[in-house]
Write a structure and sequence with these properties.
Length: 632
């Protein structure tokens, strides 16, 4: 892959370039796992031949001493950062210092920091962010609550949301009446608030224009993550397969899928503070974890969800402190812990029979509405367990025991009123959790998708860059859409929500395909096949592989007819103008016309098809970037 990256970076097509990101060089976590395997007698030790997974995990745990598979070994070089228990900023502090103070200040002292940062954000005319900060100040018991409500009202006025402003001014007045302030101040402030209420209460709320949500035109009645134009059929030898129920136009949204167990784990460990731990969207104004300064959120809502589930236990283990020292690859072992920690231990124990003995449905698609349905769909995903190498099974078992030992250092079981002896053999409840994590690792190996973060190019506002910031499981996209090295879709994501978009016109009855590896234009067929066989345990038989289609620099470059060429030039000029004007919707529409024209007049493989596909995908990433800016 290094040679491929170098080749792409030397390409004249800048859209095909990739950047190297420097990570930590040594993984103590991987060393811990390897030492445990060695202590057990190596990969061919008898313990790894035990057929029952629960018995295998129990035996591994009993044979290893307390010094083996001990998370504290990996954490010994980590710096424990404590929150500051005093107010260290004031009204003259810079936004940078206020941001640091928000991250580093103890929960008991943070209300004033939020209020001060809210004032700074108002000065910067970042009204929505300021409103959030003042609300956070109120939530944390800011002593002069009436001032925070008044500030919120002022922000709403700037946004011309007059009814919301009136409610905030009224809340300030109610709070002022019960506040402990001198009568002179109370009288003066009361007058101001009543004048505000009188002035703005009669004004109508201005409707804010927002970008339309990305969603199928008509959703499937059973599984609303799919478009109604998609049909799922079980095929012999291929399993669940997606077909076009009707003709599908380029640009159609075919699936919108939420990630299960989204795990923030960027290539650069410093960037964990640039993305929300819960929704994985870009964060411009950070909201901290209540316990550690290692992760941030984009909102109070995301903070409450994460800290009420998976991050409660991540935080107790200081996993993101560990990420600062260990490698991205090393920390991927915590993916399955993130999924399990997202639900109470009692949930997994009560429903173990549905997850440990999957009984895949015969009719597709399946409902995905309740928590139970969502997790059932996860554990019904294909694992190819019998084809997985012996060494992989060994590593899965050792990682599962390591995670079980790590869970003992948290309140995970206690929170479900389950008693666990932290020094003894694994309990029956722990073995259920261990078997689930073992299966999740098998599922992840066959089905995981990367999650990409989006950043604007500061030197060129029309350009955006993407970088892998983590991964997770998408039970609709991974379960229903097979791989093709020349797929008729593209994948994009907004935070942890993933979209599958038609990148070609798809005829009724034609298979709808994703791409598990890399587009044929960027990697030779033999390399793609080797990679797919190694990672997904099947041999790719797509047309691009079977016919050994050339990579980008070796593709045909023949020009279409003069009439078609002239139209393509016109559409390309429309694309460029639209992007320069920030009209990404028009740019996407122009690309759709361009793709339709090329598809009708040029056979693949062709350099023009690959170039326009890449440009089309860029437009979608630009749209995602603009949606994130709108949210922030």
């Amino acid at each position: 892959m290094e040679n491929l990256t170098d080749e792409l970076n030397s390409s004249k097509d800048s859209s095909r370039r990739f950047e190297h990101v420097k990570d930590n060089q040594k993984s103590i976590l991987r060393d811990i796992l390897n030492e445990a395997i060695d202590s057990l007698g190596g990969y061919n030790a008898d313990v790894f031949e035990i057929e029952d997974i629960g018995d295998r995990l129990a035996s591994i745990h009993n044979k290893l001493g307390a010094h083996n598979l001990n998370l504290e070994t990996a954490q010994k070089d980590c710096v424990k950062v404590e929150k500051i228990q005093e107010l260290v900023v004031n009204e003259n502090s810079s936004v940078r210092d206020l941001n640091i103070a928000v991250l580093m200040t103890h929960w008991d002292y943070i209300a004033s920091v939020y209020f001060l940062r809210g004032n700074a954000l108002m000065t910067a005319k970042r009204w929505v962010n300021a409103i959030n900060d003042f609300n956070m100040a109120i939530d944390h018991g800011y002593s002069d609550g009436y001032k925070a409500h008044h500030k919120i009202g002022q922000c709403y006025v700037k946004r011309k949301q007059y009814q919301s402003a009136t409610k905030s001014f009224q809340a300030a007045l109610d709070n002022l009446n019960s506040a402990t302030v001198c009568k002179k101040v109370q009288a003066a402030f009361t007058k101001i608030l009543k004048e505000c209420i009188s002035k703005f209460s009669a004004k109508p709320e201005e409707i804010m224009k927002t970008m339309a949500a990305i969603a199928p035109a008509t959703a499937n009645t059973i599984d609303n993550r799919l478009s109604d134009s998609v049909e799922i059929i079980e095929e012999v030898g291929k399993g669940r397969t997606a077909f076009a129920k009707s003709n599908i136009g380029v640009g159609s949204i075919l699936s919108v899928d939420d990630c299960v167990g989204a795990h923030l784990n960027p290539d650069d460990p410093q960037k964990t503070l640039q993305y929300c731990l819960q929704c994985l969207k870009n964060v411009t104004v950070q909201y901290p974890c209540s316990g550690c300064p290692r992760v941030v959120y984009c909102s109070r809502e995301c903070q409450q969800v994460a800290e009420g589930s998976f991050h409660k236990y991540q935080c107790q283990l200081d996993l993101y402190g560990l990420r600062q020292k260990d490698t991205k690859d090393g920390c991927t072992i915590f993916n399955s812990l993130t999924i399990i920690a997202g639900k109470p231990a009692a949930f997994w124990i009560e429903n173990q029979s549905k997850f440990l003995v999957p009984n895949a449905a015969s009719d597709w698609p399946t409902a995905n509405n309740t928590e139970l349905e969502q997790m059932t769909n996860l554990f019904d995903m294909i694992t190819n367990e019998n084809d997985v190498s012996h060494d992989s099974h060994v590593r899965h078992a050792v990682v599962a025991v390591f995670l079980l030992r790590s869970f003992r250092k948290t309140t995970f079981y206690k929170d479900s009123n389950i008693l666990v002896d932290e020094t003894g053999s694994l309990s029956k409840e722990e073995l259920v959790i261990g078997k689930l994590m073992y299966r999740i690792r098998l599922i992840k190996d066959m089905n995981a998708h990367p999650i990409w973060g989006v950043e604007n190019n500061p030197k060129d506002k029309s350009q955006v860059g993407t970088e892998q910031i983590g991964g997770g499981l998408y039970t609709a996209i991974a379960s229903y859409f097979n791989s093709d090295c020349n797929p008729n879709t593209i994948r994009i994501n907004l935070g942890k929500k993933m979209f599958l978009v038609a990148s070609k016109n798809i005829r009724k009855g034609e298979e709808i395909t994703d791409n598990y590896c890399i587009h044929f234009s960027d990697m030779a067929a033999h390399a793609r096949r080797e990679w797919i066989e190694e990672n997904f345990l099947f041999s790719c038989e797509c047309k691009a592989c079977e016919e050994d289609w050339p990579t980008y620099n070796h593709m045909p470059t023949t020009r279409p007819s003069e009439k078609v060429s002239d139209k393509l030039v016109e559409l390309e000029m429309d694309n460029m103008t639209a992007l320069q004007q920030g009209n990404v919707e028009k740019a996407i529409l122009s690309h759709c016309k361009e793709i339709s024209l090329i598809q009708a007049n040029l056979p693949e493989p062709h350099q023009l098809s690959a170039t326009v596909r890449s440009s089309y995908q860029h437009c979608w990433w630009k749209k995602v970037s603009m949606m994130i800016q709108e949210i922030n």
